[in-house]
């Protein structure tokens, strides 16, 4: 799964945004949690745009905004059969720029958070989005697609976000052209070598937003890229 992530306005993120065809800056944000507003890249009529959306997808057909079901992640393996995600898979695909994400392992009765970041570079999470409208209310929301964890990441969790390569961007964002079988995109891939580092348990509280909490508190581990 992916339940927290971070954005750092650094040269790596700026390079990713240029690769996405955007001349914008995104302010740094730490310990982003579901239901918060997040920056999302979409393509409409061949033009790419950056929009703020709620990170917790509300399907267009939902009778109300509801958090009873975990809709901030979408499993790659079941997108085509999910009532909530099969429509967005065809018509509303997106990319969420990120710098790192967080997973947890149990240690002595508590959850130890781990920062997972590229050694060099930024991350393009594959996502889906939808529009919900009712009684004059308008909400754009999104979900991050997850897949089985790659070797090295799987010791922390059995799921991880789908990370797109630059050569995948055009096909994923172009909703005017049939996507075909997306399995070659939506699988366990690490586009860069990654670094895993334990960080402060204060990260467990989503109200804590200091970037200082993302500093390693123990030995870092390196994980090789996986194609």
How would you sum up this structure in a few lines?
By secondary structure, the chain is mainly β. The chain is about 10% helix and about 35% strand. It has one domain: Alpha-Beta Complex (hypothetical protein yedk fold), CATH 3.90.1680.
Model description:
By secondary structure, the chain is mainly beta. The protein has one domain (5-100, 122-190): Alpha-Beta Complex (hypothetical protein yedk fold). The chain is built from 3 helices and 13 strands, in the order E-H-E-E-E-E-H-E-E-E-E-E-E-H-E-E. Strands 3, 4, 5, 6, 9, 10 and 11 form a 7-stranded mixed beta sheet that branches. Strand 9 (123-134) and strand 10 form a beta hairpin. The longest helix is centred in the first third of the chain and has 9 residues, at 11-19. The model has no long low-confidence stretch (mean pLDDT 96).
């Amino acid at each position: 799964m992916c339940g927290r992530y971070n954005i750092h306005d650094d040269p790596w993120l700026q390079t990713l945004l240029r690769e996405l065809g955007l001349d914008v800056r995104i302010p740094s944000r730490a310990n982003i949690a579901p239901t918060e507003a997040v920056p999302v890249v979409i393509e409409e009529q061949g033009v790419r745009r950056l929009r703020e959306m709620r990170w917790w997808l509300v399907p267009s057909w939902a009778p109300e905004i509801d958090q009873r079901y975990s809709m901030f992640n979408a499993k790659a393996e079941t997108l085509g059969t999910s009532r909530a995600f099969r429509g967005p898979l065809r018509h509303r695909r997106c990319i969420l720029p990120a710098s790192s994400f967080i997973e947890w392992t149990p240690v002595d009765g508590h959850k130890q958070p781990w920062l997972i970041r590229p050694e060099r570079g930024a991350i393009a999470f594959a996502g889906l989005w939808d529009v919900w409208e009712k009684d004059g209310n308008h909400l754009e929301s999104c979900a991050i697609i997850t897949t089985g964890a790659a070797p090295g990441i799987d010791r922390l969790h059995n799921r991880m976000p789908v990370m797109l390569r630059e050569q995948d961007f055009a096909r994923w964002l172009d909703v005017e052209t049939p996507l075909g079988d997306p399995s070659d995109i939506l699988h366990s891939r690490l586009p860069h070598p990654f670094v895993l580092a334990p960080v402060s348990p204060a990260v467990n509280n989503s109200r804590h937003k200091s970037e200082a909490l993302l500093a390693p508190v123990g030995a870092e581990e390196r994980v090789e890229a996986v194609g």
